[in-house]
Amino acid sequence: MPIAFKDVSHVYSAGTPYEYRALDHVDLEISEGKMTAIVGKTGSGKSTLVQHLNALLLPTEGTVYIMDRTISAKEKPKKLKSLRGAVGLVFQFPEYQLFEETVLRDTAFGPKNFGCTAEEAANRARQALTLTGIGPEFYERSPLELSGGQKRRVAIAGILAMDPKILVLDEPTAGLDPAGTASMMKLFSDLNKKMNKTILIVTHDMEQVYRYCDEVVVVENGRIREKETTAEFFRDARRCNEMGMLPPSLIRFIEMMREFGFNVPDGITSEEQLAEWIGREVKHG
Q1: Per-residue model confidence as pLDDT tens digits over 116-134
Q2: Domain residue ranges in the chain
Q3: Contact indicator for 143, 151 with CB cutoff of 8 Å
């Protein structure tokens, strides 16, 4: 049980007229080695939930378990530096994470802060920047002068340079063009499948969820509405519609075919499978 929330609540501005309960007695276990999507309407508590994973936020009530660490509302957390090295969090707004004079120094800050030599930190930074598509021509530029998409890539590289065991990404492809989105999601998938990193993605993009994630956690009004495999979640397109999110294009197309009388079976999860089924149907009249 590497990640678990047990009866966790979080209250902002407690005891003031602005008191707001963002999480309300959350119980949740997140599977190790999986790619998990955290979805829900804006304001549902998704970002508050994931910020508990490296103790940027602490529970008002309850307990969070992260690998071998326990973060409880009743105790002051210890060893936060090592926790934040093991759990890398990329914020929704990359500007929050960029502060050094140059891209290379910003990306190397994390590994250097966690004990790497300056040379090793720089090497890690170059490798991470290469992974995220930032070339050497950007190394000496100020990260704050970059485009929104480039800033996001640099922010992600800064976390990857620390080689965390758990990677938490809050809307990681916002501001990227379609090609950039596809390459970034492929990178996250490779980190999960090839390097066995546990990855959590907060997203509104159901195409990403459908194509890349193993499990889906739905947050609603500060509570966990459901946790299911991706296949189970997308069996009913109405769930996306209820959250104001567009279902994946394949799901929409299958639903449209059913509305026109085609008995498309459950279990089709790719365009190739659908094309094969249509081919068989045409062949048999």
Answers
A1: 999 999 999 999 999 999 9
A2: 31-57+77-238, 248-285
A3: yes
Amino acid in position 98:
L
Instruction: Choose which CATH entry (3.40.1190.10, 3.90.470.20, 3.40.50.300, 3.40.30.10) describes domain 31-57+77-238.
Output: 3.40.50.300
The bridge status of strand 3-12 relative to strand 61-66 is antiparallel
For the chain, report the end-to-end CA distance as a whole number of angstroms: 51
DSSP class of residue 93? S
H runs (alpha helix) in 64-117? 80-86, 103-113
Of 66, 65, 57, 46, whose CA–CA distance to 14 is shortest?
Answer: 57
Q: How far is CA 31 from CA 28, 69, 85, 199, 225, in A?
A: 10, 16, 20, 10, 17
SS3 11: strand
How far out from the chain centre does Cα 152 lie?
13
* pLDDT band for position 224 (cuts 50, 70, 90): very high
Mean pLDDT of 216-223: 95
Measured at the CA of 92, the angle between CA 90 and CA 96, to 5 degrees, comes to 75
| pLDDT band for position 37 (cuts 50, 70, 90) | very high
Q: What percent of the chain has pLDDT over 70?
A: 99
Mode of pairing for the β-strands spanning 20-30 and 223-229: unpaired
Q: Which two tokens stand for residue 126?
A: 């170059």
Residues 198/33, Cβ–Cβ less than 8 Å:
yes
171 within 8 A of 90, measured Cβ to Cβ: no
Most confident of 81-85, 111-115, 185-189, 215-219: 215-219
Determine the average pLDDT of the residues in 9-16: 93
Least confident of 23-32, 107-116, 141-150, 233-242: 233-242
